[in-house]
Amino acid sequence: MKHLITLDDWSRDEIMGILDLADSVKRDPAHYADALERKFLLMIFEKPSLRTRISFETGMVQLGGHAIYFDMSTMPLGRGKETVYDTIKVAGRYVDLIMARLFNHAVLEEMGAAADVPVINALTDRAHPCQVLADLQTIREVKGRLAGIRLAYLGDADNNMTYSLLAGGAKSGMRLHIGCPPDAKYAPEEAIVTACRTVARENGGAIAVSHDPVEAIRDADVVYTDSWMSYHIPPEELDERVRAFKPYQVNHELMRHAKPDAIFMNCLPAMRGYEQTADVIDGPQSVVFDQAENRLHAQKAAMISLLDS
């Protein structure tokens, strides 16, 4: 059974195939209007999200199928009388696809092991593959390629976006430079960096980690940042995290060190004045709403592909 749990499990050719299909779906949506006719997607939400629910539900309907919303706040998964295994086994008898947005990545892996239908990771604390597929689609649209593209990621680097960008960028032959504070709780795990660096080299890319924001962003084709305060971070840590990440804020002065035609990306939601300034995210180099739109097209491509495999 093929799942989309992390991009580590997908080959370079499989990722490029999804991106090609996403481009086709975006270019000619009418051609795919019946691609998933009479198919059902179960959407399991432990973490709330605007973009994830709307893009998956809309996408499924546009493909001729139907989406079912399941809110874990009203029926906790695996914390009542029924185990995660039993829940997913039963759900697989009713639907054709399962999508889950969870806190704990291990629970999603448990779902994948139990499922008799494809499982899609719509975000966990370790991975956000759907977002990165949309990001890769966006970069390729603007820059015409992925191989050799230099992407600088700045800010909190011990999070799901960093790890999925490392995995997807390595498979795509990109050159990723992570800029983050030296404190280990804000830096990517060394074992993950080492594994992705090996994959990147195999595909003609490279990965570097720096604690100097100027060094990280220098000559970048793509500048990427993410929230300093993700859902799981308690509000009382805000002041400490602002002090740690302020040197990595993507502002006009820092953007001057990237290439003149560099694009700015943020997977949203974004806080102006924190991880980036308003003049950057609302400026001419920003493609944040293009990448948000491409969640729809990339996820449609992923669902079609998973049910065709």
Helices and strands, with pairings:
Elements lengths: L11 H16 L12 E6 L4 H13 L3 E6 L12 H9 L4 E5 L3 H10 L4 E3 L7 H15 L6 E5 L5 H12 L3 E5 L10 H13 L3 E5 L2 H5 L4 E4 L12 H8 L6 H4 L7 E4 L11 H4 L6 H21 L1
Parallel strand pairs: 1-2, 1-3, 3-4, 5-6, 5-8, 6-7, 8-9
How would you describe this protein?
The chain has twelve helices and nine strands. The strands form two sheets. Strands 7-6-5-8-9 form a five-stranded parallel beta sheet. It has a four-stranded parallel beta sheet with strand order 2-1-3-4, sandwiched between helices. It folds into two domains: 7-127 and 295-308, Rossmann fold (3-Layer(aba) Sandwich), CATH 3.40.50.1370; 131-291, Aspartate/ornithine carbamoyltransferase (Rossmann fold). It is an alpha/beta fold. Helix 2 crosses helix 12. The model has no long low-confidence stretch (mean pLDDT 96).
